[in-house]
C-alpha cells in the first residue's frame, strides 16, 4: 500500500470520502512488546485530530500508573483549559496483573471484567467517544470471562464512526476475522532475555 493508496478499490457504491470515514476495528496481538504502545500512539493521533479518546485497561492494577496515563491526563487538561485536541478519559476495569497474585478469586475478576465490558457496551451504543483503546482486552476473552461472539456482534453494530483498538496476546480468531486492521507483534530480542529488568521510560 505505497503512499497510503489501497491496492484495489471495492465496488461498494461508496465515495472515497465515505470509505475514508468508516470506523476502524484494530487488533494488536502477538508475543512481542509494543501492542499497547502502538495503540496509545494511535490514540495520540486521534486526540490531535479532535477525536475524543477513552482508554479502558482490563488487566493492569489500579495502582499501576503507566507513563501514557499521565501524558493523556495532561492532554485532557489541555483540552479543558485551552480547547486544544479533545476530551480524554482513562479507566482501569480489571483487578490486577494477570500473572501476579491478586485479591479475590477468578469469579471476582470475571465479574469485574464483565462489568467493564458492560460499561463499554453502553458507551458504544450512545456513541459517547470517538476512539476507544481496550487495553489487554484479549485476556478476559481468552479466559472466557467475556463472550467473544457477543463482543464481535456489539462491535459490528456500533453506531457512527467510533474507532476501537484492542490489545493483548492470543486474540481470538473470531475477533481477528472481524477486525479491519490486525498487527501481530513478534519478539525477536528483548532485554529481559539477558536478565535486565523493565526500565522507566521503556516499559512504563
Automatic annotation (TrEMBL):
Single biological process term from Gene Ontology: cobalamin biosynthetic process
Gene3D superfamilies listed in its UniProt record: P-loop containing nucleotide triphosphate hydrolases
GO MF annotation list: ATP binding; corrinoid adenosyltransferase activity
Alphabetized InterPro entries for the sequence: CblAdoTrfase_CobA (IPR003724), P-loop_NTPase (IPR027417)
SUPFAM superfamilies found in the cross-reference section: P-loop containing nucleoside triphosphate hydrolases (SSF52540)
Any single Pfam family the record assigns to this protein: CobA_CobO_BtuR
Assigned keywords, A-Z: Transferase
PANTHER family: CORRINOID ADENOSYLTRANSFERASE
This protein's name: Cob(I)yrinic acid a,c-diamide adenosyltransferase
Organism for this UniProt entry: Mycolicibacterium insubricum
Amino acid at each position: 500500500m505505497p503512499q497510503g493508496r489501497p491496492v484495489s478499490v471495492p465496488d461498494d457504491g461508496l465515495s472515497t470520502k465515505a470509505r475514508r470515514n468508516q470506523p476502524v476495528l484494530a487488533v494488536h496481538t502477538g508475543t512481542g512488546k509494543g501492542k499497547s504502545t502502538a495503540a496509545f500512539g494511535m490514540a495520540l493521533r486521534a486526540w490531535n485530530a479532535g477525536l475524543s479518546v477513552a482508554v479502558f485497561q482490563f488487566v493492569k492494577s489500579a495502582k499501576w500508573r503507566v507513563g501514557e496515563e499521565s501524558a493523556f491526563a495532561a492532554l485532557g487538561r489541555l483540552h479543558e483549559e485551552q480547547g486544544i485536541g479533545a476530551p480524554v478519559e482513562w479507566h482501569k476495569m480489571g483487578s490486577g496483573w494477570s500473572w501476579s497474585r491478586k485479591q479475590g478469586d477468578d469469579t471476582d475478576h470475571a465479574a469485574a471484567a464483565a462489568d467493564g465490558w458492560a460499561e463499554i457496551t453502553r458507551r458504544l451504543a450512545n456513541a459517547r467517544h470517538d476512539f476507544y483503546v481496550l487495553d489487554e482486552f484479549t485476556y478476559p476473552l481468552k479466559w472466557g470471562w467475556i463472550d467473544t461472539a457477543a463482543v464481535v456482534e456489539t462491535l459490528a453494530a456500533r453506531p457512527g464512526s467510533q474507532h476501537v483498538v484492542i490489545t493483548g496476546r492470543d486474540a481470538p480468531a473470531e475477533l481477528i476475522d472481524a477486525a479491519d486492521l490486525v498487527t501481530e507483534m513478534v519478539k525477536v530480542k528483548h532485554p529481559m532475555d539477558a536478565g535486565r529488568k523493565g526500565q522507566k521510560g521503556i516499559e512504563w
